[in-house]
Amino acid sequence: MTAAAAGAVISGGSSDPWYAALSKPFLTPPDVMFALVWPILFVLMAAGALLVLDRAGSFERAVSPLGLYYSMLVFNAGWSLAFFGMNEVALALGILVALWLLIVAMMQDFWRYSHLAALLQIPYLVWISFAGYLNAYILFTN
Fold first, then answer.
1. What are phi and psi of 22, to 5 degrees?
2. Cα–Cα–Cα angle for 74, 75, 77, nearest 5°?
3. CA pair distance 137, 59, nearest whole angstrom
4. How many CB atoms lie within 10 A of CB 125?
5. How far apart, in whole angstroms, are the C-alpha atoms of residue 76 and residue 41?
6. 10 Å Cβ neighbour count for 111?
7. 10: which of 19, 47, 79, 83 lies 20 to 30 Å off by Cα?
């Protein structure tokens, strides 16, 4: 939940003058959508990690998938820092690409322990893909 809290503190949404001034794509969701979607995604992410931990029986037996999970959380918070905290849209897009790859790798590792744990990550992967579209649009039009 630390990653969620960090993202919430760093991102000001439309109340941030820098973000409000950006040209954004037509499909940009309203701020309230982000406030609704992120808690659900974090619950799904955590549920998947807990399923893996349960199936593995210990942290030691699940070091690879849980390592990817925690790395993914760091990159998630890093995107918020780069995009909203530093206003570095290109860096944020690079972090987002790395995050997307981490999610895919995490899902593959989760699959070895629990198919459900891996499938629970699909909404997150879709959301991050959509975020990539939004980030790239902002990068190339501003």
1. -70, 145
2. 65
3. 40
4. 16
5. 12
6. 16
7. 47
For residue 142, give both structure tokens.
Answer: 């501003």
pTM across the whole model: 0.89
The Cα 63–Cα 65 span in angstroms is 6
* Amino acid symbol at 18: W
Q: 135 near 96, Cβ under 8 Å?
A: yes
**What is the per-residue pLDDT for 34?**
93
Please list the alpha-helical segments (H only) found in the chain.
2-10, 17-21, 31-56, 63-80, 89-113, 115-119, 122-141
Q: Residue 15 — very low, low, confident or very high, per pLDDT cuts 50/70/90? A: confident
Task: Determine the average pLDDT of the residues in 13-22.
Answer: 89
